[in-house]
Amino acid sequence: MRLTAAVLDAPDARELAHFYLRLLPGWGVRRDEDGPDWVHIRPPGGGTGLSFQTEPDYRPPVWPSEPDRPRMMVHLDIEVDDLERETARAVAAGARLAAYQPQDDVRVLLDPAGHPFCLYTESQ
Prior knowledge:
Oligomer: single chain
Structural class: alpha/beta
Number of helices: 2
Protein name: Catechol 2,3-dioxygenase-like lactoylglutathione lyase family enzyme
CATH superfamily of the largest domain: 2,3-Dihydroxybiphenyl 1,2-Dioxygenase, domain 1
Order of helices and strands: EHEEEEHEEE
Strand content: 25-35%
Shape: globular
Number of strands: 8
Distance between the termini: 34 Å
Number of domains: 2
CATH class of the largest domain: Alpha Beta
CATH topology of the largest domain: 2,3-Dihydroxybiphenyl 1,2-Dioxygenase, domain 1
Keywords: Lyase
Helix content: 10-25%
Low-confidence stretches: none
Strand order of the largest sheet: 1-4-3-2
GO molecular function: lyase activity
InterPro entries: Glyas_Bleomycin-R_OHBP_Dase (IPR029068), Glyoxalase_6 (IPR041581), VOC_core (IPR037523)
Organism: Streptomyces collinus
Mean pLDDT: 93
Largest sheet: 4 strands, mixed
Radius of gyration: 15 Å
């Protein structure tokens, strides 16, 4: 048994996959022959990737969580060398900076479908 991907629902799987391809340099489409509602992307050299599924009734999670609103069930942590530069690049690729930022060395962003993800630098 091996984990091959985390799957993110979205109103448009292809649109969200293209955002992550812009965000993650070197990643490529592994497979999209499963129809217009599925896209699979992988890092260079293989390994666990991301998959995207179109969900017509998708509702984005709320960050930070609020009572009776869709809660974040999972988020992606992405290590970067330069937090300020990569945050700006993520925003230019289509992400939004979350209003609530709980840590100085982490930036919480929302992808175009509203999924939270974190950019962080490894503490030295």
